[in-house]
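Worked example
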Amino acid sequence: MLNFRNIVEIPFRTAEDFPDRVSHKTRIGNSFIDKTYFQLSRDIRALGTAFAELGIGEGDHVSFFVCNRYEWIVCNFSVMLLSAVTVPRGSDTTVKEQHFIYQHSDSTFLIVENISQLNELTAVFTDEDRDRCRNFIVVDDGDPNEVDESLRSKIRFLEPLLEKGRALLEKGDDRTEEWLDQIDQERTVTIVYTSGTTGNPKGVMLNHRNFLQQVIANTERLQVDRDNQETTVIMLPSWHVFEMAFEYVGLYLGLMFVYSSPMRFASDLSRFKPHLIISVPRIWESIYQKIIKAIGEMSGLKKLIIFSLIKHNQRYIYSSLYLEGAYISYKKRTDLRRFLSSGKHKFRRWINTPQHLAAEKLFKSFRDKVGGRLRVAVCGAGSLPLYLDELFNSIGIPIVNAYGMTETAPGLLSREIHRNTYGSTGIPFANTEIKLLKEDGSVPEVGEKGILYARGPQVMQGYYKNPAATEAVLDSEGWMNTGDIAVQSENGEYVIVGRFKDTIVLSGGENVEPENIESKMKESAYIDHAVVLGQDRKQLTALVAMNEEELMNLAARLKLREGDYLVSDEQAIENPHILDHVKKEIDRLISKEQGFKAFEKISKVLLVRNSFTIGRELTQSLKVKRKYVEEKYQNLIHKLHIDVGRKRKK
């Protein structure tokens, strides 16, 4: 039974159970060295002891701007061990954002990755910023003489600190158990600044209880046998609360962690053959396009066989799930209707069984692309489109949808591995209450939309130094207004359908959830990102960031040179042939046949080259920052809407 005093206790207890088990594969150039759970626990003790000598203690705020690596987890736990508060972010975050977080969080210590990063950040520091920081801790070795002379005395490098901590431990100065006993579950342990799609980030205060809830809930959902070690490959940034919570869960489960990157992710999946991973929809969108492209390049007969097997296996899986009660329905069915439907699905499963067995063998090559032994991929930080759900589960790569937010550390809902209902966001975690309310405060019927509220031990303490923002989302009874719109099915599963603040209201009064349309548009190989527009207008328009490779291929087929279609100063694509081609693709996807209403049709499209990058147009979880994009392209969007208006008047 899980019974931890705090989050920090987890790696120490796992080290007691599995001291020689590898906790991390640490990348050194193109090779790796192993770190065991015993080494991890020893390094946390040593660095915690050294940090205590520096004066880090209870309540101190430590800004911590380091990307995925073994040292990240060691620094994180060493700070928490001393009842100090971590304020994490990646080293690849913009200097402006790092500076804002450092200032707003009232940090008195700063951990950075290297001297170059320290110089860039301190160059924008005020005198007050410099005076407030008691020490600058640098992970990689470097030359302190490269730093402003006034700061040199405050610089400490990580490796000498570890050596100092080890020496103190050898002399018997081990206060680990004393520190663990002093940690208060209810005190803030980390302040995670949201990488939201609008405005300045807000500091979400989370405590040990918030994260322990995630360990309890996810241990149950992930179904890991702790005695048989499993491997995970990490691509999401460790400071992201989805990844952070997963690492705490994984440390309890005794996983082996391999820190990867977007560039190396595909090769690391193949090399390390993970049993489970956490992911975001954009990863699967990219893999989906590669799979569809690979199938499209096959010979006619083979292509026909593959697509046929996918289709028949999807039918087999749908029917199997239906017979297990794992389906989305918003209407109560009579006993007769259930009986007839059950008979239909039994027959459909039986008739598609041969294709299902053939698919299991034939699709092995696709499964090998992600290592060949992937037991489950948890997908969060955005809605998983149905087409991804269907394809990957059909070829034997099980993706389990999950939902949460930074403010709930993050998990609230997820599907169950043995009940992986297509299209569902899942059911509540243990100890979690969920309710839906309409705008007028009334409770929606099954199948009706409502704003999702959550209450449970994972809900944040509030936003740091922002009581007004806290009161806007967290009421006196502990209910958190997530701002997300959801519906509940007849069997109690929830489906997230959009963001309340993103809802577009057309001039005719129709409400549009842009997320569903944008997800569908991204089924096209031409479209990397899409932003649906149209607030207070008669019709919807869309800004589309094109896939660079597909743009080049299309231009070649149309015998166009770059200068024939690209407006270089704004990266807009204005060639009528390309516009027509992409518009027809969107019309095919956003159509009555695909389940969309007439007012959801996209009337006009603005095409731009895909220059979207993390930290500007994209969040760390690869979601589009709608407000940023609308402001960046406001002139082109204004022109687009003028053209739409003129077209209507003709």
